[in-house]
Amino acid sequence: MNFGIYLWMFYLENTTAIIIVTSFLITLYHRRDLFARELKIIAGFGAITLILALHQIYIFFTVRIGNFGVDRAQSGIISGIIYGAENILCGQAVMPVSFWGIVLILANLILFTVFIINVKNVLANDLDKTFLASYLCYMVTGLGALRNYSSLFSLQGYFMSDVFCKIKKNWVRYCVLFLTIVGTCGGIYNAAFHVNTTKKQWNMPFGEAIDYIHENTDSIENTLVLSKDSVLLYYLREEGYNTVLFEGYQQFEQQRLNPDWENVFDDWNGTIIAVKTFEPSGRHDPYYERYLEKIAELEGSAECVQLGNDKFAWFKKLMDPNIEDWEMKIYTFSVQE
């Protein structure tokens, strides 16, 4: 069952590869006596899995490995511990300082207290020990910075459930359940409406941005849109817009940037729409760094609009002082020869 969950995660999240392979080998070891009888089943499902996961394997080695540690490990172990605590206390669908985040933190602090009281009984369980050891390893080694802690979610769920069962008083159980349900509903709302999550791209105002671009387009054929966000450009490209997609973080369409993009920009006759996201730098991508410099050079001649005001930017700046107060800024240049 655990392997099935990991397998599903791998299809969605390529950076769990190491954990999945390890889990698979452990599963084979524990079922070694039945290996010969199950060989055809293992080989068949293994082949299907490999085919389905090929695109994620490619992304893992061509993009994620290169980005290792850039997004979340810039401050070393301290950042890993902070993000690890955030993940286990309230998750990524709520801000820790929001109402929903505080509700979830209260629920998990109660469970943490129960864990401390029953630490010997909890640690007697091998799966609980595996989770705690793995989680600590993720925090202090930077593995969590490779993407996030999704590879441990099934073990985390088991651990939290086991600790919950150690609560002796019913009113405490009801309190934890109520707080968890309320906070989770808030997180679902945030994710559904793209607001106030700790996953920055979840908060991007894609619909608002596309509407703005539509309103400022005289001719699709004569409009060039540049961005590093593949979600935005996917829909615009489907509508016939000319687009330049920058290779970078959070990209599921692995389309490499044309190195000649600046000449295309300079020679364009029509409307140029340049999109800048909340991220203050190019994350060691020289093309995107140059793109940001280009926008700064021409900013005075462009019409600019800011979309997606981030009311929790003050909190995010504690980890990254360069984070902007908005999710997206769109510059519109009119170029006529």
List keywords for this structure.
337 residues, alpha/beta, 3 domains, 5-stranded mixed beta sheet
What is the share of helical residues?
A: 55-70%
Q: Any low-confidence stretches, pLDDT <50, length ≥5? A: 1-15, 69-73, 248-256
Q: In DSSP terms, counting alpha (H) and pi (I) runs of 4 or more, how many helices?
A: 14
Amount of beta strand? 5-15%
Mean pLDDT across the residues is 77
Distance between the termini: 63 Å
Q: Tell me the strand order in the biggest sheet.
A: 2-1-3-5-4
**How many beta strands in the DSSP annotation?**
5
Using the CA coordinates, give the radius of gyration: 23 Å
Shape: globular
Structural class: alpha/beta
Number of domains: 3
Order of helices and strands: HHHHHHHHHHEHEHEHEHE
The biggest beta sheet reads: 5 strands, mixed
What's the quick description here?
By secondary structure, this protein is α/β, with parallel strands linked by helices. 56% of the residues lie in helices and 10% in strands.
Overview of this protein structure:
With 337 residues, the chain is of the alpha/beta class. The chain folds into three domains: 1-66, no CATH class; 73-198, no CATH class; 200-335, no CATH class. It is built from 14 helices and five strands. The longest helix is centred in the N-terminal third of the chain and has 30 residues, at 35-64. It is globular and about 75 Å long. The relative contact order is 0.10. Residues 1-15, 69-73 and 248-256 have low confidence and may be disordered.
